[in-house]
């Protein structure tokens, strides 16, 4: 192995370790229906690459998913929630820039009558 190959090998190894540590950073985000009175909540979450589809949450139930933040730190999931008179309230359920510290591995959104918490 000449010096170039050795340097290259080392760089690949360092990159691999770096990507690996970022990619294994699993985050769990969930949305919980706390509307009460047996009200259903419709949740539709997606990211640039994943459409999680529309989910109906009965009163008290919770919907969540796991993902790894990408190595570029640009992971963003957004949701539209609908219940009763509220049609398609839009919010970011996970934004790496905002949440990497706040919810390192767990992000729970609770939707109650007064709004989301
Ligand atoms: C809520 O959703 C469940 C399951 O989809 C359904 O059986 C029920 O009738 C719904 N309740 C209301 C209040 O719409």
From TrEMBL:
GO terms for cellular component: extracellular region. Residues 1-24 form the signal peptide. GO terms for biological process: rejection of self pollen. It comes from the Eukaryota. Keywords: Secreted, Self-incompatibility, Signal. Pfam families: Self-incomp_S1. Belongs to the plant self-incompatibility (S1) protein family. This is S-protein homolog. InterPro entries: Self-incomp_S1. It is found in: Secreted.
């Amino acid at each position: 192995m000449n010096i170039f190959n050795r340097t290259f090998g080392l760089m690949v190894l360092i990159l691999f370790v770096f990507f690996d540590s970022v990619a294994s950073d699993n985050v769990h985000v969930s949305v919980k229906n706390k509307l009460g009175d047996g009200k259903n909540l419709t949740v539709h979450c997606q990211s640039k690459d994943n459409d999680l589809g529309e989910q109906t949450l009965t009163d008290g139930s919770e919907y969540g998913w796991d993902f790894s933040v990408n190595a570029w730190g640009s992971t963003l999931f957004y949701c539209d929630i609908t219940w009763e008179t509220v049609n398609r309230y839009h919010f970011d359920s996970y934004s790496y820039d905002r949440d990497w510290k706040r919810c390192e591995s767990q992000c729970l959104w609770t939707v109650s009558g007064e709004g989301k918490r």
